[in-house]
Design a protein that fits this description.
Shape: globular
Strand order of the largest sheet: 1-2-3
Number of strands: 3
Helix content: 55-70%
Number of helices: 9
CATH topology: Rhomboid-like fold
Number of domains: 1
Radius of gyration: 17 Å
CATH superfamily: Rhomboid-like
Order of helices and strands: EHHHHHHHEEHH
Largest sheet: 3 strands, antiparallel
Distance between the termini: 30 Å
Strand content: 5-15%
CATH class: Mainly Alpha
Length: about 220
């Protein structure tokens, strides 16, 4: 199921959401300029669970910086475009309720929660944890709490048939979370190196963090 848009208009211009999309775009375009140097750059700059837990590692401040960098890096066009689509559809309404400043705080804290959820689930992984999907998962978790009845225009693939349907957020987003949870359990069974490179527990951790952060930041009515 691929979301196309939501039927939930924002009352204010989502300035921060636009800036987050722009920042992710700039970082991804920079990655494209690196060519053969990209792998070395990602290994050096991004968050790596194994390095975080290694004795005598870089230390918490440096790892927090690496986790922040990781939130703006992507592993390819599909990874980047998919994340930006979800952020575009769902982020504006969450920003509308939180306000610009609290939305920045919310997004970054959700990203950190997702990163460390992945780290504890895959502590021995030497694969860099990159992508905005953890923070965006927090946005999805907040959205379903704030707008459970909002309609999500969704592309559904049924074999050779493609159907467009409108699903309430209270149906679409829990289904999305259930898929992440089942994939995460499957990944635990095969090990981090054989799980396809997807940080499922970052999605799970971010989604759970979303409602908790809403409670802390107290959105507008």
């Amino acid at each position: 199921m691929l979301p196309l848009r939501d039927l939930n208009r924002s009352r204010r211009t989502p300035v921060v959401n636009y800036l987050l999309i722009a920042a992710n775009t700039v970082c991804f375009l920079y990655e494209l300029t690196l060519g053969a140097r990209l792998e070395g750059f990602v290994m050096q700059a991004a968050f790596v669970p194994e390095r975080f837990f290694a004795p005598g590692g870089p230390g918490l401040p440096a790892e927090l910086g690496s986790a922040l960098v990781s939130m703006f890096l992507h592993g390819g066009w599909a990874h980047f475009l998919g994340n930006m689509l979800f952020l575009w559809i769902f982020g504006d309404n969450v920003e509308d309720r939180l306000g610009h400043l609290r939305y920045v705080v919310f997004y970054l804290l959700a990203g950190y929660a997702a990163t460390f959820a992945h780290a504890f689930a895959a502590a021995s992984s030497s694969v860099p944890a990159i992508g905005a999907s953890g923070a965006i998962s927090g946005v999805l978790g907040a959205y379903v709490v704030l707008y459970p009845r909002a309609r999500i225009v969704t592309l559904v693939f049924l074999g050779f048939f493609i159907q467009t349907v409108e699903l309430p957020a209270l149906v679409y987003l829990p289904l999305w979370f259930l898929l992440q949870f089942l994939q995460g359990l499957a990944a635990l069974g095969v090990g981090a190196h054989d799980a396809g490179g997807v940080a499922w527990f970052a999605h799970i951790g971010g989604f759970i963090a979303g409602p908790l952060l809403l409670w802390l930041l107290k959105p507008r009515r």
